[in-house]
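[job 4471] stage=fold_predict status=RUNNING
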Amino acid sequence: MQLDEGKEKFILAWGKLALEWGVNKTMGQVHALLLVAHSPLSCEDIMKHLKISRGNANTTIRALQDWGIVYKHNIVGDRKDYFIGEKDVWQVFTHILLKRKQKELDPMIKMLQSVSTVEGKCEASDEFCKMIRDLKHFSTKADSMLETILRSKGNMLLGGFMRMGK
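[job 4471] inference complete, writing structure tokens
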């Protein structure tokens, strides 16, 4: 397989995976393109390569910057903005993990807290409260585990993951 063919397959696959992760395909494809780019790319480069509109490219780049996995890169003597993808896999993982935690887990914990006490004593309310307590307990444990991962040194955990995969 030639390099260009491998890059294209990766970009298409990363875009499809993005849908599974709850983000749109274009966001995944732009991220993949910047991950494997040999040098910084301009918005025009991204638009041309992925055949997307300027608005779509700009919106997607801003979203990836908000996630902390794409950075603006200036080239001396060139007025265009260029972009690079974070190349450190641990940084990419932790930035995505943090964003997903903020978007999904934190609101769920807040919601569970708000419904954890209901008025009235009956079998249905007892069953409801037990389920909410169990979900809240699981969610707060997951939150604690994610916080530990986010605070940890990537090399230690990444090394452990790599050893598990062998």
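[job 4471] summary: The radius of gyration is 21 Å.
[job 4471] exit 0
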